Amino acid sequence: MPEHVDHHRRRLCLAGASLAASQLALATPWPVASGTQLPSFQGATGWINTSPLNADALQGKVVLVNFCTYTCINWLRSLPWVRAWADKYQPQGLTVIGVHTPEFQFEKEPPNVQRALKSLRIGYPIAVDSKQAVWNAFNNQYWPALYLFDASGRMQHQHFGEGGYEQTERMIQKALGKADTELVTPDTQGWGVQADWRSLKSPENYLGYERTENFASPGGGLLNAARSYVMPPSLRCNQWALSGDWTMGTNATVLNRAGGRLACRFHARDLHLVMAPAVDAKPARFRVYLDGQPPGKQGGMDLDQQGMGTVGAPRLYQLIRQQTAIADRQFEIEFSDPGVQLFAFTFG
Questions:
Q1: Would the pTM of this model clear 0.85, i.e. be above it?
Q2: DSSP annotation string for 245-296
Q3: CB 255 within 8 A of CB 245
């Protein structure tokens, strides 16, 4: 199992406050060349909020394409701007199209996608891209990614990751032929709260055997076999460990018996965990601790004041949002029910 920390994971897009777009351009080749004709959406496996959109339906429209997957915190933090652009500029000729290309298997299930996007108040069209056909047509590599096409169908602007909102909106205005100098002021509460980039020292980490890093339980992970894990005496920053009876699969780690714990030492304001209930959809109750105590006011949106919560749907859960000075902290989560599936940590 790899032990190094990779700060260049595909889901953790680098074009945000941590890197200027110009720096990213030097490091990353653009998937679609400027002036390229709008690729086809023909490979979409379904559509939400619209009937299927094709080249004829989009002819003469300015089109903004936004690649997403609903568990990606980077996309969730950028969503308020995309939603606000759709609301403001649709009457002026802009068509915003989300392309939901899943990362995890459960994100391919239409009911999960529909439930998640509805809860996020998304009213613009979404192409469901469960087979990655649209992703491949764009040669895309990132969540989130934005591609802007003018009324002739030619690509005029693209941006990967968070940030760059003013530049993107100015390009939308230019493509629409508007001299509007007012920019949107989106609602950035909840998932839309921007990362505290100055204090963010913990990168995303997957919890399946294939891509995890810095796993610290003695003896390491065992692929596709039940094992009783124990916590080490201490954890270094960005290490994680298990205790209890778990099975570490390729893409997720699954709890076999109630009472299992996961611990992670981290340095960030926010801590999120992608989790899913058991395969029979039975919810899993849990309790969170921060440095050995219930987090109280330091808890995230998915906890009560005692640090209790429930995994009832496959999604991203916000478990810590600190209100105090950021330092290395110890996160622990204990599950009262078996079967819960753990996929990835993300931070903010």
A1: yes
A2: EEEE-SS-EEE-STT-EEEEEE-SSEEEEEEE--TT---EEEEEEETTB--G
A3: yes
Report the phi/psi class of residue 49: left, alpha or beta, with left for phi > 0 and alpha for psi in -120 to 50: left
Distance CA 202, CA 217 (A): 19
Cα angle 321-103-193, degrees, rounded to a multiple of 5: 25
Please give the C-alpha separations between residue 153 and each of 39, 56, 62, 147, in angstroms, as whole numbers: 9, 11, 7, 11
Condensed to tens digits (0 to 9), the pLDDT of residues 113-161 reads 999 999 999 999 999 999 999 999 999 999 999 999 999 999 999 999 9
Degrees to nearest 5, angle at CA 259 with 253 and 264: 55
Question: Which residues on neighbouring strands pair with residue 229, listed in sequence order?
Answer: 244
For 21-192, give the CATH class: alpha beta
Listed by start position, the domains of the chain span: 21-192, 205-347
Please answer whether residues 35 and 154 qualify as being in contact, where contact means their C-beta atoms are separated by less than 8 angstroms. yes
User: Taking the CA of residue 111 as centre, how many other CA atoms within 13 Å lie in the half-sphere pointing to its CB?
Assistant: 2
* Tens digit of each residue's pLDDT (9 = 90 or more) over 82-98: 999 999 999 999 999 99
Domain 205-347 is of which CATH architecture? Sandwich (2.60)
Distance CA 95, CA 49 (A): 12
